[in-house]
Amino acid sequence: MPITQEFESIDTDSLSREIQRQSPWVQAIREEMSQVVVGQFALVDRLLIGLLVNGHILLEGVPGLAKTLTVKALSGCLSAQFQRLQFTPDLLPADLVGTLIYNPQKNDFSPKLGPIFANLILADEINRAPAKVQSALLEAMQERQVTIGDTTYKLPDPFLVLATQNPIDQEGTYQLPEAQLDRFLLKVMIDYPTISEERLILDMMATSAPPPQTRAIVNPETVVEARRLVNQIYIDDAVKDYIVTLVTTTRNPNAIDPGMKNLIRAGASPRGTINLTLASRALAFIRGRGYVIPQDVKDLIYDVLRHRILLTYEAEAEEITTEDIITRIVERTPVP
After folding, report:
1. What is the reported pLDDT for 303?
2. pLDDT of residue 17
């Protein structure tokens, strides 16, 4: 089905020009972060996508791949409050959200707000915290509020959780619950740099001097205003149908391949459809377009769905990954 339905009635050219006029800060952040982080261009774009749609991001990769450095570099580019939280097995919910402090002079309790009251939260090694802490974080991520005692407190806007986890060190870690994983807009896998990139890393970082710092480029108000434009980005009905087909196929793989029936234990929820749409709009914004094309969807589908598909024991025994499942679905779904 060609992407023509109502397309002419939408002034996408004007919207594209407005996006290009209001988005120079995107390229400025890219250039500023390149002074600190070598390569990782896809990671930087996905962090910007999280900012543009107010979605949380889970970063997974072995130690030493600049996950923490990248998030700190992004926070330096924003005139926003940043907090780094090192998750440990003995962390308590009060260490995260705050608690009530007794005041003997006034004979009452007053709230002491925790470090989660910031615009950017770096949840380092998130899978090392126990279930009670994950539960407290889940309320903050989903409702953008926390409860201390009998009172609920709103979190600042924007509020973004950028979490990291190590895929190979299982000692002292907890499995993140599926409900919490589903709250992350994207799960980004961080890979090793290329040989040429690692040579640049050597030149930049092999010194005892403090690492370079990024400078403030944009304020939270500009980001919030950019979201207004992101929400206006046009998506043709054919592309919407394409997104829905991709996500719902994870629940009914028989529609394209009967051989996948015994590989998927549970597919992506409607939140996957919503998040793939939001992320595609944000990627179109970053690329200076007022409309979404199928390639935007294909570029993001792995990050949106890889943590939303649960595999069967049979798939794990055959060493089939969620990426393999997504690849089969993308290859066998007609592109509009």
Report:
1. 93
2. 86
